[in-house]
Amino acid sequence: EIIELPHKTNGYRRKAQAILWTDANGNGSIQGDEAATAFYATTHAWGHEGGNDWSIETVAGPPGSALDVDVSGTHITVTLATDAEGAVTSTAADVIAALNAEPALDDVLDAYPYRGNAANGIAPIGSAQFSDGLSAPPHIPREPFTVKMIRIGKHRDGSRVGVFGYAQEHAREWQTPLMALETAERLLRNYDNDPETRRLVDGLDIFIIPTVNPDGTNYSMYDNPVQRKNMTNHCPPQDADPFRRNSWGVDLNRNHSVGSLFDGYAGASSSCISETYAGTAEHSEPEARNLDWVVETFDNIKFSMNIHSHGGYFMWSPGAYISNGRIPLERPSLGVEDYFFEASERILGAIKEHRGTVVHPGRTGPTSDVLYSAAGNSADELYYNHGVIAWNFELGVQIWNGSTWTTPQAEPGNLSGFQPRFPEAKDQAMEFSNGLIEMMAVALDYSRDKVGPTTDLVVTGGDGDLVEFTFTSSEPATIYYTTDGSKPTFSSPVLQAEYIRDEAETLTVPAGTEVKWFGVDIAGNTERRYDPDGRAPTHQREVVRP
Question: For the segment 411-422, what is each residue's pLDDT rounded down to a tens digit?
Answer without folding.
Answer: 555 555 888 888
